[in-house]
Amino acid sequence: MRKIEEKAARAFTERFGEAPEMVASAPGRVNLIGEYTDFNGGFVLPCAIDRRIAAAVGLAPDGEGVLFSADFDEERSPGADPDGTWADYPRGVAWAMSRKGAEVPAFRAAFAGNVPLGSGLSSSAAIEAATALALDALLGLGTSKKDLALLCQKAENDFVGVPSGIMDQYASLLSSAGSALLIDCRSLDDEPVLLDLEGANLTLLVCDTRVERGLADTGYRDRRETCEDAARALGVQELRDASEKDLDRLTGDELKRARHVVRENARVLEAVRALRKGDFAAFGRLMYDSHLSLRDDFEVSTPELDAFVEAAREAGAPGARLTGAGFGGCAVALVAGAEAEALADFVRRKFQKEDFEEPAFYRFRPAAGAEVSGRLS
Ligand code: GLA
User: Fold this and answer.
1) Residue 88: which of 96, 98, 78 has the closest Cα?
2) For 140, which DSSP code?
3) Which residues line ligand 1 (CB under 6 A)?
4) Predicted TM-score (pTM) of this structure
5) Span 202-364: which CATH code?
């Protein structure tokens, strides 16, 4: 078992006086390219990170369900209505399972994690995926990981109330170690794309700007609606079906948002071709292009995210861009392993000069998706 899984199992045993029946864990993700394309039926290329949330679960013998967070040292009820806390994610998953017709008996769960929270690294998808996989195994339902991803998205959309696409839950459940995952968000087909960073002496440096993101906030919702309006105006099912030529028929915000989506989809496919050739220089250029498009056309960047990307460019990093929904949160740079520390220092000084919050830095390896680590009793 991984350490984080042991921690969740121990928390369960200490809290409930007996060992859990099942433990599963799921990773956060960093998106390499393909932003705001998922809910437009397009392509994304995230990879799972080596930070996870573990869920230890067991049936509640007295019929009293309990959710316990070892990190917050806090108990919540699984059957309660959403209350804006961490517990909404496991609650939402249990709710979505019942909605799909599964008999979900009263259960107890303990959670432990090391995915940075609220930074745009999908801690919410990680706790959803870990819960879904653990419960699915506990109840012997045998649901496919793809269907679990859809179920987690339903929990997020209809229970938590965040209108997100499928990328985060899909990446958390289906990624494989050492690879990024190309996902076609319309067909829900996927393909691992080898990400041999070590072989190229490169690393992914993630900068957490520590600017709170409000994904449930209007920014995300507005962008989604404008994309849907643009698709309607063009008479296509989703912006996935729009072409560069179609853009001539749009104006204003619809034009800007659609232009980002059409070009970002093309960039993802080009980025995959570059990775397959081991051409990280080309891959990095596409990351920079993606950032500019997110800044100028999709308008989801912030001065901090721009400052990081600019610093990466000045330092000669092959690529950098904001990652996730933007409006704060994280940016990611593709940088020579030996230069990552220097880039982080350079950015720290730059942020200080600008009077920004002190950023946090992480280096991640492309990690495995959600896994059950075992039936324990
Ligand atoms: C968030 C959502 C995803 C996706 C990204 C933007 O992470 O959860 O579904 O839309 O924003 O690419």
Assistant:
1) 78
2) T
3) 35-36, 38-39, 164-165, 167-168, 324-325
4) 0.96
5) 3.30.70.890
